[in-house]
Amino acid sequence: MGKEFVVAVPTLEMLEDVWIAGTKSGPEKIKDMSINLIDSKKVNVKSIKEAVANLECKLIDKKSYGDHTFFVGEVLHYTYNEEAFKNGKPNLQFNFLAHLAVNEFVIFDEKIYKM
Ligand SMILES: Cc1cc2nc3c(=O)[nH]c(=O)nc-3n(C[C@H](O)[C@H](O)[C@H](O)COP(=O)(O)O)c2cc1C
């Protein structure tokens, strides 16, 4: 079977777990985290119950650029919280988490600028 991965979209409520996932290495870190792993539908990698979306991917390509590796995946299946994606776009009340720098994170401002 080919290689697979899941992209799980976190919220601010998951910040401590995101930090543990990103600063520790190896599957034992799951014990220090409070996420619940659930079966995915199309891949053998687990999804995260608390994430607002889980993209189940098959690895298509992988390329190294010095200190980074670029992964390309085909999305085979996805699950998401319908409340968090209302009217075809993210519902920012769900505090989608973004990385700012080192140990700093932000959520998106709910003000929307229209053209
Ligand atoms: C805020 C933050 C940003 C990170 N950015 C990257 C990144 O850009 N590239 C990367 O390969 N890993 C990044 N990491 C992940 C960790 O460096 C590392 O890959 C992870 O702890 C490895 O865990 P594993 O060995 O269990 O897979 C980041 C982690 C955190 C917390």
Can you put this structure into words, describing what you see?
- By secondary structure, this protein is mainly beta.
- The protein has a single domain (4-107), classed as Pnp Oxidase, Chain A (Roll), CATH 2.30.110.
- It is built from 1 helix and 7 strands, in the order βαββββββ.
- The protein has one helix spanning 15-23; strands at residues 4-9, 37-38, 47-48, 53-65, 68-80, 97-101, 104-107.
- It starts with a strand and ends in an 8-residue tail after the last strand.
- Flavin mononucleotide binds at residues 19, 22-26, 99.
Uncertain parts: none
**CATH class wording:** Mainly Beta
Strand content: 35-45%
CATH superfamily: Electron Transport, Fmn-binding Protein, Chain A
Q: Which CATH architecture? A: Roll
* Total DSSP E strands: 7
Largest sheet: 3 strands, antiparallel
- SS field, number of helical segments: 1
User: What is the total domain count?
Assistant: 1
Question: What is the overall silhouette?
Answer: globular
Arithmetic mean pLDDT? 97
As laid out across the biggest beta sheet, the strand order is 1-4-5
Order of helices and strands: EHEEEEEE
End-to-end C-alpha gap: 46 Å
Rg, rounded, reads 15 Å
- Annotated CATH topology: Pnp Oxidase, Chain A
Structural class: mainly beta
Estimate the helix proportion, in percent: under 10%
List of distinct ligands in this structure: flavin mononucleotide
Produce the secondary structure layout.
Layout (H helix, E strand, L loop, with lengths): L3 E6 L5 H9 L13 E2 L8 E2 L4 E13 L2 E13 L16 E5 L2 E4 L8
Antiparallel strand pairs: 1-4, 2-3, 4-5, 6-7
Flavin mononucleotide binds next to helix 1.
